[in-house]
From TrEMBL:
One of its GO terms (molecular function) is ATP binding. This is Bifunctional NAD(P)H-hydrate repair enzyme. Gene3D superfamilies: 3.40.1190.20, YjeF N-terminal domain (3.40.50.10260). Its cofactor is K(+); Mg(2+). AMP binds at residues 402-406, 431. Bifunctional enzyme that catalyzes the epimerization of the S- and R-forms of NAD(P)HX and the dehydration of the S-form of NAD(P)HX at the expense of ADP, which is converted to AMP. This allows the repair of both epimers of NAD(P)HX, a damaged form of NAD(P)H that is a result of enzymatic or heat-dependent hydration. Catalyzes the dehydration of the S-form of NAD(P)HX at the expense of ADP, which is converted to AMP. Together with NAD(P)HX epimerase, which catalyzes the epimerization of the S- and R-forms, the enzyme allows the repair of both epimers of NAD(P)HX, a damaged form of NAD(P)H that is a result of enzymatic or heat-dependent hydration. The gene is nnrD. It comes from Massilia eurypsychrophila.
């Protein structure tokens, strides 16, 4: 498990542990950890200078302790600090850290140096920031960002909300770090929304705090271990019926591509048979993947099995009729795109979703989620975990809130943040592919929660693989994802320790 802790939880852990230690012990541990990471990042570099930005609070104290440690290290590191003292009295621990730094060979500067340092350590503000950066702190952050200097942020990039991943304040700024060394426990805001771009690679140091001090996490990072029990090798004695049927309901006039992409996602993720029930007569077959069957949605009998409903479906009377039938039936459902908009506009359809007993997964992007919740997109983005949880609770369904750091929420409030994927996914049709992959896993017998977790992780990993192979992120297209997802899934299966009968491999 890769737990994610809220700011309130981190504060509670810190308070409880500090009561058992000498004053300043945790700050000293953070300073040692930061200095060690900095030395590792400087290893092999000709430029072994470090500039530390230290704010007035305990985050600044961490940076000052790191500066003192770096200055005392016999590694030929030139250490400089820009210290912003603030207007209020500092804590005794931060005052002691400042004294440690002043007693060392650290140089204190009043402004940014002319020459680029080998590394900038950002210790301006940590998890306690409640308002947008202003004054000298804002100027420093804007200048460092503009210069593009390599930054290691301590705990959280200055200016970023550690819970939500939003930059603090309506016109706020936050440091762009190449790496974030976060203390005590990992935070959700480092992995979703704007945090994905500001935090860089995230490293956790628990500061030698015992596991007994950590409460149950309210969220965690997605990883294959969360759906590993469903990843099984296939029996030789199987047939197409062994792996389920998926029907994609969508494709109004001019939108045949959406259900086709969804169908390809389902096919390449291993469904035994895939069918498109198109609202518009459209194509008779997919010339790229002729294995996909096509039917008229008007004549399609919605029954059991697995349905992906919504890709390119539009908002016609027929679309509404098909959605109502699907919600009344016993099929496992992945509800996407236009179907979500129809539900958002109808109290009756919302009640039908919430009353279903069959597996149901909703895959909204932020605008669709905003319509379902009756709020703005900005409100969704500034509380992605909370909004995903609210949707899951109100609609009694698994919810995948798509975007940078997609959030998968369950009806019981559990939330998982996904870290795979890249900007190549910001193009038309990738959500249709995701819905198809999720439908395929449902059809193969995966429970709804695991199907959502697995689909989102595999979908993002497929995009990452394409980038590694030189495809994208710029110019990556949705049609390239299904084959890459197939490779990722097969590698998971090959590495799985579960036999087809569910017993561990010997």
């Amino acid at each position: 498990m890769k737990p994610l802790y809220t700011v309130a939880q981190i504060r509670a852990i810190e308070h409880a542990v500090s009561a058992t230690l000498e004053p300043g012990a945790l700050m000293q541990r953070a300073g040692h950890a930061a200095a060690n990471v900095a030395l590792a990042l400087l290893a092999g570099l000709a430029n072994r200078s470090v500039l530390l930005l230290a704010g007035p609070g305990n985050n600044g104290g961490d940076a000052l302790e790191a500066a003192a440690n770096l200055a005392h290290a016999s590694a030929g590191v030139d250490v400089a600090v820009i210290h912003l003292p603030g207007t209020q009295a500092t804590s005794p621990e931060t005052a002691a850290a400042l004294a440690h730094a002043a007693e060392s060979q650290v140089r204190f500067l009043g402004e940014l140096p002319d020459l680029e340092p080998g590394l900038v350590i950002d210790g301006l503000f940590g998890i306690g920031l409640a308002r947008a950066l202003d004054g000298p702190a804002r100027a420093l952050v804007e200048a460092v960002n503009a210069l593009g200097w390599p930054v290691l942020s301590l705990d959280v990039p200055s200016g970023l909300d550690a819970d939500s991943g939003a930059v603090v304040g309506p016109d706020g700024v936050a440091i762009h770090a190449a790496r974030t060394l976060t203390f005590i426990g990992d935070k959700p805001g480092l992995h979703t929304f704007e945090g994905v771009d500001h935090a860089g690679a995230v490293q956790v140091d628990a500061l030698a705090i015992a596991d007994a001090h950590f409460p149950p996490a309210q969220a965690q990072l997605n990883e294959p271990a969360l759906f590993a029990r469903c990843v099984k090798r296939r029996l030789h004695n199987s047939h197409k019926g062994s792996f389920g049927d998926v029907a994609i309901v969508g494709g109004a006039h001019g939108m045949a591509g959406a259900p086709t992409l969804s169908a390809r996602g389902a096919l390449f993720a291993g469904a035994g048979r895939v069918l498109v029930a198109a609202l518009d007569p459209g194509p008779a077959f997919d010339s790229v993947q002729p294995e996909i069957m096509f039917r008229s949605a008007a004549d399609f009998a919605i029954g059991e099995g697995t349905l992906v409903i919504g890709p390119g479906m539009g908002g016609s009377a027929l679309a509404m009729e098909l959605l109502a039938k699907a919600l009344a039936g016993d099929a496992a459902l992945v509800i996407d795109a236009d179907a979500l908009n129809l539900i958002a506009a109808s109290v009756d359809l919302r009640e039908r979703v919430a009353g279903r007993s069959a597996p149901t997964v909703l895959t909204p992007h932020p605008l669709e989620a905003a319509r379902l919740l009756g709020v703005t997109v900005a409100e969704v983005q500034r509380d992605r975990l909370g909004c995903a949880r609210a949707l899951a609770a109100s609609l009694q369904s698994i919810v995948v809130l798509k975007g940078a750091g997609s959030v998968i929420a369950d009806v019981d409030g559990a939330a998982v943040v996904n870290a795979t994927g890249n900007p190549g996914l910001a193009t038309a049709g990738t959500g249709d592919v995701l819905a198809g992959i999720c439908g395929s896993l449902l059809a193969q017998g995966w429970p709804a929660r695991e199907a959502a977790l697995g689909a989102v992780w595999i979908h993002g990993a497929a995009a990452d693989r394409l980038v590694e192979q030189g495809t994208g992120p710029i110019g990556m297209v949705a049609g390239e994802l299904p084959a890459a997802a197939r490779s990722v899934l097969n590698e998971l299966v090959a590495a799985s320790a579960v036999r087809p009968n569910g017993r561990p491999q010997s």
